[in-house]
Amino acid sequence: MAAMVIDGKEAAAQVLDTVKTATAELIRTTGITPGIAVIIVGEDPASQAYVRSKGRRAEECGFRSVTHRLGADTAQADLLRLVGELNGDDAIHAILVQLPLPGHIDEGEVIQAIAPHKDVDGFSFVNVGKLATGQTDTAFVPCTPAGSMVLLRRALAKTDYSGLNAVVIGRSNIVGKPMANLLLAANATVTIAHSRTRDLPALARSADILVAAVGRPQMVRRDWIKPGACVIDVGINRVPAPELGEGKSRIVGDVAFDECAEIAGAITPVPGGVGLMTVAMLMANTLASACRAAGVSAPRY
Ligand code: NAD
Fold first, then answer.
1. What is the 3-state secondary structure (H, E, C) of 177-200?
2. Across the chain, what does the average pLDDT equal?
3. Whose C-alpha lies nearest to ligand 1, atom 18?
4. Is residue 264 predicted with pLDDT exceeding 90?
5. Any idea what the CATH number is for the domain that residue 50 is in?
6. Which one is catalytic: 121, 208, 233, 254?
7. What is the pLDDT of residues 252-261, one digit of tens each?
């Protein structure tokens, strides 16, 4: 294997350490404790597990963490009322609505009801617009692309990607598009590819920075990689793993790791790469929100 493997575990631990230290300092100097409210509607086991892990991390960081567990039959009006109350609660700096919501609730309306200055997921139109217009200092940037940028900076040991070609495969609102905007803000020359792109392997081979955010197990193959490229694999896909026993499964990315690692200069593993950065950046965004409320500057990662 030639590529440097980008260690998401170590990077996430460093982000969380910085958050912890800065939180203690914020509390000491201003008396303000970052507060995060997580709302979950229904009993989906994967969502319940995500919410538990976010709550645990928040407490480890020294935040005040509140989880609102609502029944699957909660009316949209009641959910919107709760969001409204949290918008007006000065002790809460971050509001997170765990997705997906049950089918009878209009997800878009709920997300847009969150006050932009507490929208640490970065999904509100104000935050999307700020990122798209390059105002990254005051935007909340969605956590997965923000974490991917931290990994990229560690791998390339620089923050300015002038002259580098970046190809982002995937155009979702939560990963592909914000990732492309962040790369553009870092002066990369960016192409967004998607399911309608022609000759994707050839396009991918033009990339000095290749980001895969598709949701197709091991779609990116060895011959898609430009020698020395930096490959960021956002994909999280569960695939059958009969070799581990009957009915077992394992997680793989959108990139065929072993073969691509022979060509790439640096590459993120799955698991152990981008996935770990998402919750870490959520904590970073929550701290940033509290820092803004206190009028002090937040750490950079
Ligand atoms: P999505 O389904 O919303 O978007 C997928 C994108 O891939 C679409 O824009 C689509 O056009 C493109 N696509 C689909 N098939 C394609 C093909 N054959 N060729 C080229 N492009 C194709 O997914 P998403 O929410 O952006 O997530 C993408 C992946 O990232 C998933 O595996 C998801 O689990 C993972 N993810 C990981 C994290 C994390 O914390 N690491 C967070 C969010 C998403």
1. HHHHHHHHHCCCEEEEECCCCCCH
2. 97
3. 195
4. yes
5. 3.40.50.10860
6. 121
7. 999 999 999 9
107 CA distance to ligand 1 middle (Å): 19
121 is an active site residue: yes
- Domain, as residue range, for 162: 142-277
> What local confidence, expressed as pLDDT, does residue 53 receive?
93
Does residue 155 fall inside a structural domain?
A: yes
Decide: 178 in ligand 1 pocket, CB within 6 A: no
Query: Shortest CA distance to 145 belongs to which of 279, 274, 270?
Result: 274
Residue ending a domain, among 115, 150, 179, is 115
pLDDT tops 70 at residue 97: yes
Q: How far apart are CA 115 and CA 125, in angstroms?
A: 10
Active site residue 14: no
Give the whole-angstrom CA distance, residue 3 versus residue 224.
Answer: 15
Per-residue pLDDT reduced to its tens digit, 31-79: 999 999 999 999 999 999 999 999 999 999 999 999 999 999 999 999 9
Count of domains observed in the chain: 2
Spatial separation of the C-alpha atoms in residues 122 and 109, rounded to whole Å: 15
214 falls within a domain: yes
Residue of 250, 278, 158, 266 lying closest to 210 (CA atoms):
266
**218 counts as catalytic:** no
CB-CB contact of 140 with 122 (8 Å)? yes
276 pLDDT above the threshold of 70 = yes
Residue 4 in domain: no
Q: Is the confidence at residue 16, as pLDDT, over 80?
A: yes
Domain co-membership, 193 together with 244: yes
pLDDT (mean) for 87-92: 98
Name residues whose C-beta falls within 8 Å of residue 180's C-beta, 6 or more positions apart in sequence.
166, 168, 171, 190, 192
| CB half-sphere exposure, 12, CA atoms < 13 A | 22
